[in-house]
Amino acid sequence: MPENKGLEGVVVADSKISSIIGSQLTYGGYEIDDLAENALFEEVVYLLWNDQLPNQQELDAFTDELFNLMTLDDNIYKHFELYPVDKVHPMSAIRTGLSLTAHYDENAEDSSVEASKNKAVRILAQMPALVAAFARIREGKEVVKPKEGLTYAANFLYMLNGEEPTDTEVEAMNKVLVLQADHELNASTFTARVCVGTESDVYSGVTAAIGALKGPLHGGANEQVMEMLKEIGSLDNVEGYLQKKFDNKEKIMGIGHRVYKDGDPRAKYLKDMSMKLTDENGYSELFEISTKIADIVKEEKGLLPNVDFYSATVYHSLGIESDLFTPIFAMSRASGWTAHILEQYADNRLIRPRAEYVGATDRKYEPIENRS
Ligand SMILES: CC(=O)SCCNC(=O)CCNC(=O)[C@H](O)C(C)(C)COP(=O)(O)OP(=O)(O)OC[C@H]1O[C@@H](n2cnc3c(N)ncnc32)[C@H](O)[C@@H]1OP(=O)(O)O
Ligand SMILES: O=C([O-])CC(=O)C(=O)O
């Protein structure tokens, strides 16, 4: 087995976008705490793409640009009606939908820096529209187009629910988007960089990244956390549920991290939000079940909650279906993916590691009639 199975600890790129040192996370040199408490998601995206926060004029121009690209081509809305939407996971729908948006971008194959930056803006603007449209169409509801003057977080909730969200909802959604925007070389970002390292286009990189985020060991864990909470059902069942998982050597979703061994700095914000929102919306028991799970897993395994753990109850309290949790993560992470894609283009070298061959050797071709 290679020394660094799963590329653990292997450094494969220089990056100015985000950094993890111990339990400290920074975006472009700003502490995640500072940004989570103060920043608008749009400011964070601008920071990830430009290595500096925008001034008011730059933010206004960027917000307008995003709004102007937030409505999808009618054919994209229509394509969601072409297949049995009730049987399709939203992450698969978004993966296909995002890939489809490329066909309505006349500069899709233009690989200039300017065109690649424009694609990043289009993708970020279109992700919330894709998630919200799919969610409504599968319920037989009319698509809701974005509303001018709303922030990115507010517009997503508006397009999803068809009514303007409250300040509390917008604040929570904005914070979740900020917290999930980037995370160094996580699996989906690495996937995006590998893809565009072949000089492939931005849409291909983001589509590949969506596929990687979908897995339950990565972004897909937030949906699984909600399924676990539902399965547990009440506080009394937590010990029994966990014991069975431990006995079967199964993982507890939303817990553990490849890099953070002393805790994920994003989790405390999500825990605070979860406590507040579950209390306000009548889901306090889900919060209590969550903290009991976290305490027992810490005690038994020394493992701590990651970003996905408490985000599940935050989304649930906002009335969001559990299979939309990972698509929302994708919406936010599209900012980090595209930042990394642009950074990869700027100083590219094909990413191509090696494998240790451990298969059979010295075989000779046998005609098919001679094979047993
Ligand atoms: C946004 C994100 O992607 S955050 C991560 C989201 N993913 C999850 O929440 C899924 C659950 N967690 C996990 O699967 C893991 O903790 C990962 C994949 C996130 C990171 O794992 P790694 O550092 O690669 O650890 P790895 O999977 O090799 O596990 C090491 C040991 O810890 C155990 N372990 C790790 N996480 C967990 C967990 N959540 N529950 C129980 N045991 C765990 C493993 O079973 C293994 O035990 P062993 O050595 O006795 O076989
Ligand atoms: O960094 C990782 O491996 C996973 C993670 O927390 C993220 O992508 O936010």
Automatic annotation (TrEMBL):
CDD domains in alphabetical order: BSuCS-II_like
UniProt keywords, alphabetically: Transferase, Tricarboxylic acid cycle
UniProt GO MF annotations: citrate synthase activity
Keyword Transferase belongs to the record: yes
Pfam families xref list: Citrate_synt
Signal peptide: none
One GO CC annotation: cytosol
Record family assignment: Belongs to the citrate synthase family.
Catalytic activity reported: oxaloacetate + acetyl-CoA + H2O = citrate + CoA + H(+)
GO biological process: carbohydrate metabolic process; tricarboxylic acid cycle
Protein name per UniProt: Citrate synthase
Active-site residues per Swiss-Prot or TrEMBL entry: 257, 308
Key word Transferase present: yes
Metabolic or biological pathway: Carbohydrate metabolism; tricarboxylic acid cycle; isocitrate from oxaloacetate: step 1/2
PANTHER family to which the protein is assigned, alphabetical: CITRATE SYNTHASE, CITRATE SYNTHASE, PEROXISOMAL
Organism: Lacicoccus alkaliphilus DSM 16010
Annotated InterPro entries: 2-MeCitrate/Citrate_synth_II, Citrate_synth-like_lrg_a-sub, Citrate_synth-like_sm_a-sub, Citrate_synthase, Citrate_synthase_bac-typ, Citrate_synthase_sf
